[in-house]
Design a protein that fits this description.
The protein has 363 residues and is an alpha/beta fold. It is built from 14 helices and nine strands. It folds into three domains: 162 residues, 3-Layer(aba) Sandwich (Rossmann fold); 72 residues, Helicase, Ruva Protein, domain 3 (Orthogonal Bundle), CATH 1.10.8; 67 residues, Arc Repressor Mutant, subunit A, CATH 1.10.10. The longest helix is centred in the middle third of the chain and has 17 residues. The chain is globular and about 65 Å long. Bound molecules: adenosine-5'-triphosphate and magnesium ion. Adenosine-5'-triphosphate binds next to α2 and α10.
């Protein structure tokens, strides 16, 4: 095993995904594009460097670290790497490292044997076994607790592991891709991320620029999302005007492409599916996704003669509102936990208790 890549694997036939290059059918402006998960708009413009690096590294088995702000396209590029690799016909397992309780980390990584602890009613495969023959995408890797970082480093170094409660040493062939919006160098300096793990996963890094640093991509992205929204709402594609594109280019996009998609979709809904209300949609967005909810936006105290909502009801309303703004995203910068100023683990705990299901808001 070398780097974060485990084992050797024979080449498999890999369907090559279509990229939005000027010569392909998926043109940069995406207008002629079909529904395609791997449509990467801007691959010949603002994302050209990032995509070139992805193309260099994809066919190798080397570990890749994707860095970029929230919503910039890290997961999209991770999927591109997998689909352009020799492992394309194997599994691609995505794991959100920020969502795993520290006490379950061994079982999550390595799996467990039946009866190995209370509640282990059956044998469970861990991430590495499930990704065998394919790619393991460790998203939000910087959120891994330090104890889990040690475990991960060990399996990456040794290439073998045993299930919790098992004795058999297991070997799998897994390519590891990681992503984070955090500055791992700074985290290593302050000892919140292990530098030995950083060296191991960061053999090849791809930096995805923020949308405000590649304004040339705003127009093709906006045209793509407007087209999709129009078709979804009325069956007729919508087309933004040049003034509307200009207005979009003037915004700072703290939530990057995800936020742009949301603004354009909102603009299409506000326009009844027949036109785009970009100014109104942008007005709703400003300050919404980049700043914590201000105290002025908290529910206003009801008049004294009206019954107060319970604390749980008030909390439920706020959490639902934050999830609506982030489209169900709990972690990361601009995520619901960030907006509400709490730790993602804390927020998940409250959501569980209040029976709020994030996936309902994941549009
Ligand atoms: N260049 C692009 N072309 C088309 N769609 C894009 C592009 N970049 C991002 N998207 C879309 O924007 C959304 C956000 O992208 P993605 O999930 O890859 O971001 P991310 O960097 O992983 O964000 P986070 O840090 O919040 O997890 C997705 O729906 C993705 O398909
Ligand atoms: Mg992501």
């Amino acid at each position: 095993m070398s780097g974060a890549t485990m084992g050797a694997r024979s080449a498999m036939s890999s369907p090559i995904p279509r990229l939005g290059s000027p010569s392909s059918s998926l043109l940069d402006d995406g207008v002629a594009a079909q529904e395609d998960e791997l449509l990467i708009i801007g691959s010949a413009a603002g994302l050209a460097n990032a995509v070139a690096r992805v193309e260099q590294v994809a066919p190798t088995d080397a570990p890749v670290l994707l860095q970029g702000e929230t919503g910039a396209g890290k997961e999209l590029l991770a999927r591109l790497i997998h689909s352009r690799s020799q492992r394309a016909s194997g599994p691609m397992i995505r794991v959100n490292c920020g969502a795993i309780p520290a006490e379950l980390i061994d079982s999550e990584l390595f799996g467990h044997e039946r009866g190995s602890f209370t509640g282990a009613t059956g044998t469970r495969l861990g991430w590495f076994e499930r990704a065998d023959g394919g790619t393991l995408f460790l998203d939000e890797v910087a959120e891994l607790p330090l104890a889990a970082q040690v475990r991960l480093l060990r399996v990456l170094q040794e290439g073998t592991f045993t299930r919790v409660g098992g004795s058999k040493s297991r070997h799998v062939s897994v390519r590891v891709i990681t992503a984070t919006h955090r500055d791992l160098r700074a985290m290593c300096a302050e000892a919140t991320f292990r530098s030995d793990l950083w060296y191991r996963i960061g053999v090849f890094t791809v930096q995805i620029p923020a949308l405000r640093e590649r304004l040339e991509d705003v127009a093709p992205l906006a045209r793509h999302f407007a087209r999709k929204s129009g078709i979804a709402l009325t069956g007729v594609p919508l087309v933004p005007s040049s003034e509307e594109i200009e207005a979009l280019r003037r915004y700072s996009w703290p939530g990057n492409v995800r936020e742009l998609a949301a603004v354009v979709e909102r603009a299409a809904i506000l326009g009844g599916g027949r036109r785009l209300e970009i100014a109104a949609a942008l007005g709703d967005s400003v300050g919404g996704s980049s700043k914590p909810l201000s105290s002025t936006s908290l529910p206003v105290a009801p008049p004294a003669n009206e019954a107060l909502p319970t604390l749980d009801d008030a909390m439920r309303a706020l959490i639902i509102r934050a999830l609506g703004l982030t489209r169900g995203r709990v972690e990361g910068r601009g995520g619901a936990a960030d907006l509400l100023g709490v730790n993602p683990h804390t927020l998940r705990g409250k959501m569980r208790r209040l029976k709020i299901e994030w996936s309902v808001y994941r549009r």
